[in-house]
Design brief:
Elements lengths: L5 H5 L9 E6 L2 E11 L10 E7 L1 E6 L3 E5 L3 E4 L5 E16 L21
Antiparallel strand pairs: 1-2, 2-7, 3-6, 3-7, 4-5, 4-7
Length: 119
């Protein structure tokens, strides 16, 4: 068991849209990511995905709606739902998802980050 300081962990992140693992629980990983501007449309066929906004604001576009999240708010996106995250200004996010999940799901492009990067 160890205490994790999120501020210290975020200080170790220099690039946007590149999730970094800070801890695991069973088969799930807690990942921190700094985001700004638009991401890519994608979905995760085999798992749900949780976005928890720690600082700033973000939005997630879906095929029929856009949901905006403020600091302290979270959303669970069910598996198989196509979505596109975005943030007009820099935001700090925690992702909670199973180990091995690609940040771009079913899409491989310039946003696809190396998986299982720990800080």
């Amino acid at each position: 068991m160890k205490k994790i300081n999120l501020k210290e962990k975020f200080n170790q992140i220099s690039e946007q849209w590149s999730p970094k693992v800070i801890e695991e629980m069973n088969d799930y990983q807690f990942k921190l990511v700094i985001i700004q501007n638009e991401f890519t449309w994608h979905m995760h066929e085999d798992t749900d995905e949780t976005f928890f906004v720690l600082e700033g604001k973000m939005g997630i576009e879906f095929e029929n709606e856009t949901i905006e999240l403020d600091a302290g708010e979270m959303i669970v996106i069910p598996r198989g739902i196509k979505h596109k995250p975005f943030a007009n200004e820099e935001a700090k996010i925690m992702l909670i998802e199973p180990k091995g999940v690609s940040n771009t799901g079913d899409v491989k492009n310039e946003f696809t980050a190396k998986n299982d990067q720990w800080i």
